[in-house]
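Go through this pair.

…
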Amino acid sequence: MEAPPEGESSVIVSLSEAAMHMYTAAIDALPAPDDDTFHQRADIVLSGLRKLRGGLTEAAGRSRSTASVIVALSDVRRRYDTLMARAAAAPGAGLGQQLYAARVSARLSAQEVANGAGLRPDLIDDLEAGEIPTEDEAAKVRGLITALGGVPTVAHAEVPDGPEDPQEGAEEIDPEVLLDDDVVESVSSEG
């Protein structure tokens, strides 16, 4: 796959920053977790963050992604994890939100969880996106959540927010190193 021109990466990061500004404002405006509208409003933000995460994951997976794309992806993932942990700990949390929080706290991938629970691999992502499981699937997921130690409390599950400016705190990277396909592939395969 051909690398995006530097200008394209710049546009991707700028659009991501604009979207994150709106999502951060929406997260800040969420009602208390015990409010009847919390989950409905949080689900809308989570859906948007999943889409943004998907686009940035694709951009970061290119053979010559830029450091700014990777930093933007990290910021989106951090915010998503934090909001999912908050939603999972709230009254009335969905099974997928609870599974996500337990899985991330246990540092397991969706594939690893699916394999360990005897579930189809795409089911984990579907559940975490709000799909409703069958009774048999729900029983397996509940058992898995229990085996992983349950849903962590928000204080234990929260991932600290990243810097307001995704470039702030970003390590200086030699551009020549980024052109080395082996280095970039090892970075993108670690996620």
Notes: The radius of gyration is 18 Å. The CA atoms of residues 133 and 147 lie 19 Å apart.
